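The freezer alarm interrupted the setup, so I double-checked each line after restarting. Inputs confirmed:
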Amino acid sequence: MNPLIIARGDDPYNAFITRCDGMPAGKGRLAGIRVAVKDNISTRGIPTSCGSRILTGYSPPYNAHVVDLILREGAVIAGKTNMDEFGMGSSTENSAFGPTKNPVDPARVPGGSSGGSAAAVAAGMVPMALGTDTGGSIRCPAAFCGIVGLKPSYGRVSRYGLVAYANSLEQIGPFARTVQEVALLMEVISTYDSRDSTMLDQPFAPRLDGDVKGLRIGVPSEFFGAGVDPSVATKVHEAIGVLEEHGARVIPCSMPSMAYALAAYYVTCTSEASSNLARFDGVRYGPAGDIRMPWHDAFREVRERGFGEEVRRRILLGTFALSAGYYGKYYGKAQAARRNVSTDFTRVFRQVDIIAGPTMPTVAFRIGEKTKPLSMYLSDILTVPANLAGVPAVSVPCGRVQGLPVGLQIMGKPFEDARVLDVAYAYEQEAKP
Amino acid sequence: MISPDDVEKIAHLADIGLPRERLGEFMKEFNAILEYFDILDTVREEAGAMEGVINVMRDDKITSSLSQEDVLSLTKEPEDGFIRAPRVME
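Predicted 3D structure, all chains:
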């Protein structure tokens, strides 16, 4: 059945690109629950724009696997949420539909790229939402908006129907106001799907007992290094202290690969993007090019009109990093760096059960504050390592600095998503006012 | 450091379209980012490239796919069951 697309009114934070109504609730574990879906996740018959003009008027003829799964469990799709175009950004300012505002302080960004999903949950418009996380795009907005967001282990959730940006890094994951709700949505979306060849058949079973007795928490010094706001660092140390009071043991450690993890991430994601986004050619879907023009001219014209500045910048960077003569210096080195990041995680995880630190180096910044691309990229420094290594990571609220939310990031061993959520649950229960 | 000519060449390769008046600014931002990427020169490779990575193939099975009608409904002015595209030959 086709949903009724309704006007975008009554959305003070510009969280939605498309709002739906009239979809019947089903039966199941999500019966009647309204779930907001990030606009890069395909929904049959509902416009899916990825926050880009290049997909104006496009409605997918099929559902992403995760969408089929939530509908099968009785959820109602509340709408499609705003995002940085194709997921490229950390503030939800790079959207063709205008920026999303942070419900905690509307003069500030909600974080990105899944800022619309996080804002919709934080504002109480929906109890749950789906986002995607390529280099922090779920955890960053969860931290900035004061809610819970999980980036699952790579290979835990099917990416079938997700519009690809950087396949080797990205995962779909849940947002909610509590760890328990995040665990429920995660349980639903982690059902196996053979259509994503990188998916492993390892169903996720939540185990929320909140027991951290004897838990070994690794705290890498690099997560509290230069660029991290000292008051954010203090809040996060206090949060780790709460877990310690309940029987966890803190083990200081080091991850030297953090020195180049961000560079490795940006070379990798832009390279993958330059290949992935070649599909937007104005031929098969989206606004059409002029078929009387020569191929390259038509192609170039459609893309210049359709892609925003940041998307074009990343396609250029990726094209450059993969070009003859520079491949070894950039892409080749980035892959070596990426392996070293994984090795660092493996080594640290021999001595600890989880790794904890801040999700973001600062609290939410002001809309329009970060004008230089590189300064925006630098805000991802603490979230990209988990994507490079494919490990699960959650952001859970751990207090406020000057009235703005701070996120505690908890990272675990590959496929130990349940443990990561359990530790977040333990903290959440203890920190309850 | 890369020059405006380099940026123009890459933009051409990527078919991205970049107005001439924006080249200077793009180049400045581009160089700032590339300078940051220079940290990768310090990477010491511990494992060999692609060590332990193997191709995994699935069986070739026929499964259902989108109907021709669904696919063509997304394109502008299809003709006789085909998608029309710009000229490839100049």
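Quick read of the result. DSSP finds three helices and no strands in chain B.
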